[in-house]
Amino acid sequence: MRIVVVGGSSTNVGKTTLACQLLQSVPSDEAWAAMKVSVHGRECPTRVAVCSGRDDERHTDTQRLLDAGARFVVWVTVWRPHVRQGLAAGLRALRRLPVQGVVIESTSAGIELRRIAASWFVAGTQPWKPWAWRHLVRADTVVTAAGHGSWAVPPADLLPSHAPETDVNLLLSALRCDAPASSDGLARPKTDHERRHACVSQAF
Description:
CATH class: Alpha Beta
Oligomer: single chain
Number of helices: 6
Strand content: 15-25%
Number of strands: 9
Low-confidence stretches: 174-204
Radius of gyration: 16 Å
Mean pLDDT: 80
Helix content: 25-40%
Structural class: alpha/beta
Order of helices and strands: EHEEHEHEHEHEEHE
């Protein structure tokens, strides 16, 4: 199963919008799922729910992912100290589903998971989560919302000041790249391993 991760610097930066656009780009003959991970700062039980079809909450992120083409949405709710166990539980649920790939909306997944086919990070202007830079420096593609569902290369002043200097320098170098855009407007690394980061040269 192919895994694509979408994380971000904070809430409300456009992670769900990007996840939906990635789902919409999946070939029609492939079945994909989505997984959303809600991490809570207060103690709570780990819950895994598998959603499909339509429900009455028409504006939830789960419904948006279903409307974008996900055959199923696995929703994981977990207390932060147990995030690894929550991710593992969500992946177990996914492997029982008849799908070929999954878009996981979760910054924690971008930090913890390996064997990821593609990792996206959305940088925003709001205060960053203290751990978000750990996904940012592992991401293949770093973008910022440019309005109306389009994306741009984030300016350097969006980078977190608390990230290690070596990681910030690595990211600054990556953001100066001239990555070619694909036909869908999303930049791709020049080769599978040549760049750890790629930038977006044009909008969707």
